[in-house]
Every structure is written in C-alpha cells, then in structure tokens.
Amino acid sequence: MNAPPPIHPTRPPPSGDPGPAYRPNVGVVLFNAQGLVWLGHREGETSPLSWQFPQGGVDPGEDLEVAAYRELQEETGVTSVSLLGRTQDWIHYDFPPEVLANHKRARGFKGQKQVWFAFRFEGEDSEIDLFAHGEIEFDAWRWVALPEAIHTVAAFKQAVYRQVIDTFTPYAVGRDA
After folding, report:
1. N or C: less crowded end of the chain, CB within 10 Å?
2. Cα–Cα dist 21/6, whole Å
3. Residue 43 is inside which H or E element, if any?
4. How far is CA 74 from CA 28, 136, 145, in A?
5. Contact by Cβ (8 Å): 147, 171
C-alpha cells in the first residue's frame, strides 16, 4: 500500500443506516491506470451474472476503510493502491429468497448495507493473486469499463451497482487523460 490505512476512523459513520437486519459490508472498485475497473468471477458460479467487485463483511469495531483494504487484499492479493474516494451513505440491498434460504450465505440477515471505496491500482497485474487468502472468492478476473459492471452482476445487486457507478464515474479516466 502506498499509504497505510488509518488505525482510527477518519470520517463520521455513514448516514442512512437501514438498521441491524442488514450485515455491515464494504465494497471496492479498483481502477487501473487506464480507468478500467477490476471484476472477479465468483468461484464455482456458472451464471453469466457472476462477476462482481470485491466486497466483504466488516468485523465488529473495524474501521470501514481498514475493512476495505483488508477485503481487497484477501480477495485479490492487491496491496499497491491509493484511495480515490468513498460513498458517504450506506447503500443497502435485500437478499432474494434463494439467498435467504441458504442460511450460510444470509447469516441471519435480511440483506447487506455497504459503504463503497474507490482505489487506484498502483501495481502491476502480476500482483493480483486470487489465492492470496485461504478462502477463494474469485476464480477469474478481468479489467472492464465501469459501466459494463452492471451487466455482469447478480440482478439483486444491480441497483447498488448503478449507485456506485454513478458515484465513481469521475475516477473512470486514465491517469494520462
């Protein structure tokens, strides 16, 4: 990482909290030098809507930015990043019935509430390691234009992706642009 993540929260908590029925989560949009974004294919899934941005749960008491750095590293192996921005409010979604029926995936929650972070990838593609962590989240990855992401993610997450894309569009330019 170019700058170490903060140990203490640097911002007030996000507003718009939908409550404890939603699992706290962070999402990461990773931009490369050309302004493309990283998408991972969910391990073992066969649907064409199985590509997504890295995301994951927030540990109790964990700073959201620290959680974003941790999730990015666990799911992609990437640590060479700089922070571009984040969403200010919680963005939430409900799990569909098939996820709610899978108690392991739903974990007793109605859905997830997320704060999203945009990072610029400062390393080389060779840094990406889908096996960096014991639990494999993705079995393939690719760089795509930001608007393409909404067409690759599960339908129940598409409204969230629309908000994230709208928020982070200013970062979807190459460094030399």
Report:
1. C
2. 28
3. none
4. 12, 9, 23
5. no
> What is the model's pTM?
0.91
Dist CA 66 CA 36 (whole Å): 23
The three-class DSSP label of residue 35 is coil
Could you say which residues of the chain have pLDDT below 70? 1-11, 175-177
* pLDDT of amino acid 62: 95
Q: Which domains does the chain have, with CATH numbers?
A: 22-171 (3.90.79.10)
**What average pLDDT does the structure give for the chain?**
91
Q: Which two tokens stand for residue 117?
A: 């972070």
Rounded to whole angstroms, how far apart are CA atoms 11 and 73? 22
Rounded to the nearest 10 degrees, how much is the dihedral formed by the CA atoms of 158, 153, 133, 43?
150
Map 54-109 to HEC letters: CEEECCCCCCHHHHHHHHHHHHHCCCCEEEEEECCECEEEECCHHHHHCHHHHCCC
Structural tokens at position 74: 């666990």
Which structure tokens are listed for 59? Answer: 């540990």
Burial class (CB in 10 A: 0-12, 13-18, 19+), 150: middle
